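S.,

Sequence below, as promised.
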Amino acid sequence: MSCSSCSTNKNGVPNGCKSNGNCATGTCGSGNKLAVFDWLSNMTLPSGEAPFSIFEVRFKNGRKHFYKNTENLSLSMGDVVAVESSPGHDVGIVSLSGELVKVQMRKKKIDVESDDVKKIYRKASQKDIDIWQSVREKETETQRRGREIISRLGLKMKLSDVEYQGDGNKATFYYTADERVDFRQLIRDLASAFSIRVEMKQVGLRQEAARLGGVGSCGRELCCSTWLTDFRKVNTAAARYQQLSLNPLKLAGQCGKLKCCLNFELDTYLDALNDFPKQETVLKTENGIAVFVKMDIFKKQLWYTYKDNSFKWYKLSLDQVQEIIELNKNNEEAAPLEDYESEGTEAVKVDFENVVGQDSLTRFDTPKPRRNQRRNRRKKKPNQQQKSVQNKSNNQKDQQKPRRNNRNKRRNKKNNENK
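The prediction came back faster than expected:
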């Protein structure tokens, strides 16, 4: 995949960034994390309205900040700019401009006059881009050597990522740790090993998965690394409301925490559960008390079993259960669950009928016993050749029998004459 500004050769491979996400537009490859589509770009501002002077700039792994355009530079999405940092300057890519920046700042509760909003120095020169790319290439080796230093010091922390500043004077080390870590000696060792300013930044397990990226169990790229920006708390109650088994291997994501997608359909399940009775409600029938087992929310089906005889489950519809509850409220016992289950059985609908003589769609799924039968027949019944061989051997045996008898008679005569 490549962006629209990259030309392709005859083999379909882009000539620009080679799908590595290092092109100026930043809209393809690994630079596409948390990309934003400016749907107001083709609309003109009202007369007398000045364009918004704050731009959103994206850095490595989707990290974004807001910067003021105090120099009134003509910037657009995809431009590489040098921005203010402490100390020195950093290099990033303009990811959003215009009125949508106001919406993003309001969403993240950032004031326009805040000190967090720094300045844009200039458009990045070729020298700035060369230094920026050279220090980006050092990040993998820096991370490897940093992990060696951490293991030598025996610190209980995990170094997940390293990000160099655009001018190469500072590097941010992102780590995760379960406990408080004293890394004062680590900072000294890292600063002396790489001759840079070191900044340690602790991130959570969800933020680590968002920075590293990956593919989830659904087969799609992780939501946290593509579009999800706010990480809400996920409880096991969300799994209980959706009638999911509390298996941590299935409910946990790559970060080791509960999957964020458990919250996506939770509101729909909660709305559907308003019509269902509580699970603690028991049904009084003529055969005894029935207790709840499980339910299918969207099919509106519930399974109950007798409290004294729990070997068999009975499937009831939601209307049948509500009818039994109404009878119990009037101090009446309902009919046995067997009667309700027999009423709820439906005839099986035939989806496919072979009325034109067509072949069945599952004709290749059924086994073919003919070949096995033929093989068994061959084993049981001998061939014609085998029969002829057996007949010849039997004839030879029959021919040899009178010859043996004549020999025996001759021997007997000789013995009598000698006597």
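The CA atoms of residues 16 and 356 lie 56 Å apart.

Coffee later?
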